[in-house]
Amino acid sequence: MSALRRASDDRRIGIRRWFAVVPFLVGALFATLWVAPILAVPAFFVARAVNTASVTLGNQYLNDRIDSVGRATVLSSASMVYSLAVVPFEVVGGVVADATSPLGTLALFGVVLVVGAATMRALAQPVA
User: Fold this and answer.
1) pTM to 2 decimal places
2) Which long-range CB contacts under 8 A does 28-32 form with residues at least 24 apart?
3) Best label site of 16, 21, 37, 99, fewest CB within 10 Å?
4) pLDDT for res 52
5) Domain spans of the chain, in order of start
C-alpha cells in the first residue's frame, strides 16, 4: 500500500474513529457466534486484522506524541503492558471454555468487549 493511500485512509478513518467504532464491531461479530457458529473462522480473520491495525495505530499515536529521546523505551513499555493486560483474559477464557464451550466463550467475550467499550466511552473522553 502506498504512503499516499495510507495517509488518505488515516484522514478518512482516523485513530479516534477507529478506536471508537471497531471494538463494537468486533464484539458484535463475536457475540453472533451464539446464533451463527459458522462465522467463527471469518471472525478470527477479522480479529487478527483488527488487532494488527489497532497495534499499529496505537503505536503511531504514541510515536506522534513522544519526543525522540526515550521513544523506543516508551513503545517497548507500552507493548509489555499490552502483553500483560491480555494474560488475565487468556486465563479466564481458557477456564470458561473448559467449563462451557469454546464458541460460547468467544460469544461471551464479544458481549464483554461491547459492554466494556460502552462503559469506557461513557466514563472517559477519547484522547486521539
Assistant:
1) 0.79
2) 28/110, 28/114, 29/110, 30/106, 30/107, 30/109, 30/110, 30/113, 31/107, 31/110, 31/111, 31/114, 32/107, 32/110
3) 99
4) 94
5) 3-123
